Amino acid sequence: MKISFTINGTQRSVDIADENTPLLWVIRDMLDLKGTKFGCGKAACGACTIHVDGQAIRSCSYAVKFAQGKQITTIEGLGSEDDPHPVQQAWIEEIVPQCGYCQPGFMMATAALLEQVPDPTDEDIDKNIVNVCRCATYYRMRKAIHRAAELKGRSSNTINS
Amino acid sequence: MGKKKISRRKFLVRGGLGTIGMLALGTYVLRNPIRRKLLDFVNSADLPYQGSGMEPMVWFEVSKDNTIILHSPKVEMGQGTFTSLAQMAADELEVNMNQIEVVHAATTTGSIDALSTGGSTSVSSLWQPLRELAATMREMIKNEAAKKLGAEANSLHLKDGVISSGDKQLTYAEAVADITEWEVPDTPPLKEIKHYKYVGKPIPRIDLNAKVFGDPIFGIDAEMPNMLYGAVVRPTRIGSKFVSADTVAAENMPGVVKIVKEDDFVGVVASSYIEANNAKEAIEVTWEVEKDWQTSDIEAMMKVGNGNPMTIQKEGDEVGEGENVITAEFTSPIGAHAQMEPNGVLASVEGHKATIKISTQVVGMTRKEVATRLGLDEEDVNVIPTYLGGGFGRRLHTPHAVQAAVMSKAVRKPVKYYFTLKEEFQHDMFRPPTHHVLKATLKENGMIHAIEHHFSSGDVAIDSPLLPSVAHTIMGADIGAIRGGFCQYRAIPNIRSVSWHVTLPFATSWWRSLGLLANTFAWESFMDELALKAGKDPVTFRIAQAQDDKAGKRLKAVMEAAAEKAGYTDEVVNGRAMGFAASTDAGTPCAQVAEVSIEDGQIKVHKVTCAMDPGVAVNPDQVRAQCEGAIIMGMSAAMHEQMFVENGELRPVIYGPYDMALMKHAPKEIDVVLLQGIEKPGPVGEPPLGPIGAAVANAVFRLTGKRLRNMPLNLA
Q: Which CATH class is domain B295-336+429-704?
């Protein structure tokens, strides 16, 4: 069957036999966007986190049929080297990644959190950022999340003023 | 590409299988005291680089745009090696950091590390050879420029990849553009460390942007045209022997291209990952299992007194028996690697050639295994390493490369395949469980008179394909399990450390820091008990019993620095207590202070102060990052993680039930102090994993009066 959605600002359609195929595999293997990672396939680690209509979801456990007509954002659409998202800018400033594999998922989860809670407390972060990082870069991530909130607040103030 | 290689003649051959193998053979007829000295040496991990291809132009490639490409024989798995290597190379090459690009050396084009990437030795082992190679390359470029500019080489000025003579200039790329044959000069003298622009500076990681913007850099991201997907059937129970497989149902599943039946595995090749795995599930395999193993069986095996003992440290007398002997026992559980990128590989076999893209820590071994299985020449197998989504020792075993190559050969197309999470957990090469018995007697002045550590561990290095099979028998002990097993307080007059070796019914192997984590937990918890028994402050108690040689002085220095920076106190202040512990791993001493409270019945770590002496920190920011990560990973292992054996199956098989430290468990403050007690870089990646378990447990004792002697630490 044919499923259409907007991904990173571009309208795309995929033809897929099994509509229950997890969106992750459509993104990685059919649309060739490799920034979204496969970690566990059971929504337990968060490496595959993307945004669907602005909400953070774990794409390994989200059937492609539910993506019909939706707005999808992956790490490739979050920002670019020329125009990084505040979360990416903060990740660069704090030099967060080690192996880097889980980082797109964490950045997508953080970007979604900042839309809901623009200036998260440590408790907000503990409660909402529940992905797994085996290099255990959590210490720098926490700093980067606070820094991202600061950067994002600053840029929206500029727009407002 | 402005490069023309001369022959791949290895004019600086540094030995075949490496130091460990050679040492082992050399000691065959020697007696135990010599063995112990050798174990001590191997344990210090100050091993030289063991690679092939020591010609500068095999390592460095000058691009037309004046980028210098460094082909690294060590893989990047998060430890920051690529950045440190680039810093070392840039300083000797006289180029700007942003002119250096680091790539993984492929086996057909680059130098190959004969052993592995592991053991925290990447930067330390390449410190001398890489700088020499870079300096030699610089001279080679300079000599070519001298010819073109008609000037004396010595009169030329080099800066940021540009060579100047008076008002004439050439870029490095221009200088070497038409070279057909390199002339390799003698190795020039190296610069003094203090004159380096990049070495010693906290340069941002060079792979930062790739990792922040989601570039496809990992093994699992690799693709080739017409690629298919594979899956391999794996048993769920320990000791399963393959009997038969009914593949009829699977053959008719959607997307299935071929079922590949071999003597040692059954695989499926299909047109997508999902289809391959669905078909795999439809294969009915009959396995034969002799015994339904349980956790209690493993615990019973894993006792000091079982298996073969080897005394690895012997000074003076034994502790002996008597009323005044203080004794304590400790245990650690089976641990999983749980690296985030599942094991996987992309293989393409065409005729007599194979190409393998893979996250591997053993490039040379992966190549050898594929060549052997397929009957190919090693030169015809090109292993192209990718960035690793975590290593931690898990990628020192790559039999899946062989399986993918066999499947690729069968379908005549490239095949990509990777593990499901259940397969990752049940077929991990686990961190072995351990059991420790410590005994000591104190002198009248409260100092230790005699101390003894007996520890039992499953295999780490023994039977590992990384070492010659004779190595462990000749050495007499498992060189992985003994890491951290030694007593580091060598002013104590009477010391025994005895390693007991047990082979378990499932695979155990290398896990970041090897025996260090559990051995230090036992040693440093016991030292805390002894200090309290002696009525001494645990920091001064330790410092007083370190010896006065170089290693002892470095150990004392990190202990003093950690205690001072943390403001160490024995008192409980505002419901928080501090715990102190130290370790020496691979020659790098590290001391940590954990600041802990109990909240809702759970151990909460607020702050960790870490003092470490890695020698020259080529990139202090990445050394700090390794400390921060190792501390939290060590907390995860010491406070949360545990694999169980239930009715023959290793469990759990997923994150969550396999409890790991998350954001909410991570300390909000980590304060790292770096000392420099030697004039070269030492190991960094594993040493800071040592002290944290005991540091937390020692703080918990001050808060609760309860001595936690089993990992994972549990207050209940």
A: alpha beta
Based on the fold, state whether residues A126 and A146 are members of the same structural domain. yes
Ramachandran angles phi, psi of B487, nearest 5°: -80, 125
Q: Dump pLDDT digits (tens) for B459-478.
A: 888 777 666 555 665 566 78
Nearest alpha carbon to residue A73 among A95, A90, A49, A39: A49
Q: Tens digits of per-residue pLDDT, B69-111?
A: 999 999 999 999 999 999 999 999 999 999 999 999 999 888 8
Contact B317, B494 (CB under 8 A): yes
Chain B residues with CB-CB distance to A21 below 8 A: 274
Task: Please answer whether residues B661 and B713 qualify as being in contact, where contact means their C-beta atoms are separated by less than 8 angstroms.
Answer: no
Query: Is residue A68 located within the same domain as residue A93?
Result: no
Nearest-angstrom CA–CA distance, B206 and B157: 27
State the count of interchain CB pairs (< 8 A) between A and B. Answer: 171
Q: List, for residues A52-102, the tens digit of each pLDDT value.
A: 999 999 999 999 999 999 999 999 999 999 999 999 999 999 999 999 999
Where do we find the tokens 């920076």? Answer: B565
> Hey, where are the domains in chain B?
5-212, 219-289+343-418, 295-336+429-704
CATH classification number, B5-212, choose in 3.30.365.10, 3.60.110.10, 3.40.50.720, 3.30.420.40: 3.30.365.10
Contact across the interface for B205 and A97, Cβ inside 8 Å? yes
Whole-prediction pTM value? 0.94
Q: What domain range is A57 assigned to?
A: 2-78
Among A36, A102, A139, whose Cβ lies nearest the Cβ of B340?
A102
Q: Is there a single domain that holds both residue A44 and residue A102?
A: no
Q: A13 and A56 share a domain?
A: yes
Chain B CB contacts of A80 below 8 Å: 213
Cβ distance of B654 and A44 shorter than 8 Å: yes
Question: Are A61 and A124 in a shared domain?
Answer: no
Domain boundary among A55, A78, A101: A78
For A:76-135, CB contacts with B below 8 A are: 76, 79-81, 84, 88, 91-92, 95-104, 107, 122, 125-127, 129-135
Q: Is residue A15 packed enough to be buried (19+ CB in 10 Å), middle (13-18) or exposed (0-12)?
A: exposed
- Between positions 118 and 147 of B, the ones with CB within 8 A of A are none
Query: Which residues have C-beta within 8 Å of that of residue B546, sequence separation ≥ 6?
Result: B488, B489, B490, B491, B552, B553, B555, B556, B559
Counting beta carbons within 10 angstroms of the beta carbon of residue B576, is it exposed (0 to 12), middle (13 to 18) or buried (19 or more)? middle
d(CA B366, CA B116): 10
A92 and A73 co-located in one domain: no
3-state secondary structure of B119: coil
Does one domain contain both A55 and A113? no
Q: Contact at 8 Å (CB) between B333 and B358?
A: no
Tell me what pLDDT residue B26 has.
25
Q: Which CA distances in Å does B442 have to B445, B453, B672, B698? A: 8, 15, 33, 20
Looking at the domain covering B219-289+343-418, what would its CATH class be?
alpha beta
The DSSP bridge partners found for residue B585 are B588
Residue A8 forms contact with B (CB below 8 Å) = no
pLDDT in tens, B175-205: 998 888 888 898 999 999 999 999 999 999 9
CATH number for position A35? 3.10.20.30
Would strands A55-58 and A10-15 be described as parallel, antiparallel, or unpaired?
unpaired
Q: Judge whether A35 is closer than 8 Å to chain B, CB to CB.
A: yes
State whether ipTM is beyond 0.90: yes
Same domain flag for A38 and A102: no
**Whole-angstrom distance, CA of residue B167 vs CA of residue B586:** 51
